[in-house]
TrEMBL record:
This protein's GO CC annotations: cytoplasm
InterPro entries: Calycin
Chain segments annotated as transmembrane: 12-31, 86-106
Keyword Cell membrane attributed: no
Name of the featured protein: Uncharacterized protein
Length: 369
């Protein structure tokens, strides 16, 4: 009988792996319930292949945010730790702390359970905030999200987008080259990115030499010096991660309407040029993915040929793009991307960068075509 309290405590503790994550879901219950309802609608109104590809795309982007943020925070903690560094890389104090934590986790089943459950709960709470729409600037992962209290369902029709555009004629020859991202509404990109560029290379038909499409190559660096002042110059992403996807232009039209079909990451989606100035120095483009009548993703890019833009210039871009505010173009729904090329040293030289070069990390981070 003397062992009964301990047995009851053990029985109660067995629920810990469920209770802690469940609490995170309850905290954002409305967001999660709306998400499940939208997923059910997608499943009913789309093919299994389309549904699985779309959901894989969503989960990849939704999960990468909290995992990247955790990695950046741990990196900042590592480089803030005091004391001499082993091989110029890791402080002894950080190694000692990691060793103590590791031993404690190995020796205690309960501690492993609590820590594991807490980590899962943190990810669920992070995603729940995005599903609630409370992190609209860089992580609004709501499906069919709302604008000014009204749910905006699905993507706009091509005819409606045509009416929303300020630029009805578009020259793809002037589209190619390098663009600098200054503001985006895109939850697939992590919060601490900076110096983001988009390089566009036109593709042509071998026989007719007609422009038939283009290749996008996006370069992202992170974490930014503003958010991670101690870790940014030790990051493997200092030289940028690059990946590409393709765009196809409708060759049956005159190719001047600024509408193309892009494909990558397991999904296909339209890209609309909403606004471009006459000199092709500033541009607003909009992408939208709808599956089974549910809007899964919307992307909006404010781009310029110049790495610098003033707040006044960006305000004018917001005015020209206000027709797509319900889809994420309003100032509170977009993330400002620092362009710091002018402020950084030409070459960063430290033990961490030497390690990444020795490991040839840049080869794995360059997924461009």
């Amino acid at each position: 009988m003397s062992h009964q309290p301990n047995e009851e405590q053990e029985s109660t503790f067995l629920w810990t792996p469920l209770v802690i994550p469940l609490g995170a879901i309850v905290l954002h219950f409305q967001g999660w319930s709306q998400f499940l309802a939208s997923v059910s609608k997608m499943l009913q109104q789309s093919s299994l292949e389309e549904f699985s590809s779309a959901l894989s795309f969503w989960f990849l982007g939704a999960l990468s945010h909290p995992l990247m943020e955790a990695a950046f925070d741990i990196s900042e903690l590592l480089h803030a730790s005091p004391g001499p560094r082993v091989l110029g890389l890791v402080p002894w104090s950080f190694l000692l702390g990691a060793l103590v934590v590791g031993i404690a986790l190995v020796q205690s089943d309960k501690l492993r359970t609590v820590v594991g459950s807490t980590c899962v709960a943190w990810v669920l709470a992070y995603m729940g905030a995005g599903l609630d729409g409370t992190t609209t600037g860089d992580y609004n992962i709501q499906l069919d999200d709302s604008y000014q209290g009204r749910v905006v369902q699905g993507c706009p029709s091509p005819e409606l987008v045509q009416a929303l555009r300020t630029s009805q004629q578009f020259d793809y020859q002037k589209y190619q080259g390098r663009w600098y991202w200054h503001k985006v509404h895109d939850w697939t990109q992590f919060h601490q990115m900076y110096d983001t560029t988009l390089d566009i290379q036109l593709t042509t038909d071998d026989t007719t030499s007609m422009v038939t499409g283009y290749i996008n190559t996006l370069t992202i660096k992170g974490p930014s010096p503003e958010n991670s002042p101690l870790a940014w110059d030790k990051s493997p992403l200092l030289q940028g991660v690059r990946y590409s996807w393709k765009g196809e232009i409708d060759t049956t039209s005159d190719n001047k309407n600024g509408v193309s079909q892009e494909s990558g990451f397991g999904v296909t989606f339209p890209n609309y040029i909403i606004d471009v100035d006459k000199d092709y120095q500033e541009l607003v483009q909009f992408q939208c993915i709808e599956v089974g009548g549910v809007r899964l993703y919307e992307g909006i890019d404010f781009m310029s040929r110049s790495p610098t833009m003033t707040d006044a210039q960006l305000d004018k871009m917001h005015q020209r793009a206000r027709s797509i505010d319900p889809y994420g173009a309003s100032p509170d729904q977009m993330q400002r991307i620092p362009q710091l090329q002018q402020q950084q040293q030409a070459e960063v030289d430290n033990a961490w960068q030497d390690l990444w070069k020795w490991l040839q990390v840049d080869r794995y981070l360059d997924q461009s075509l």
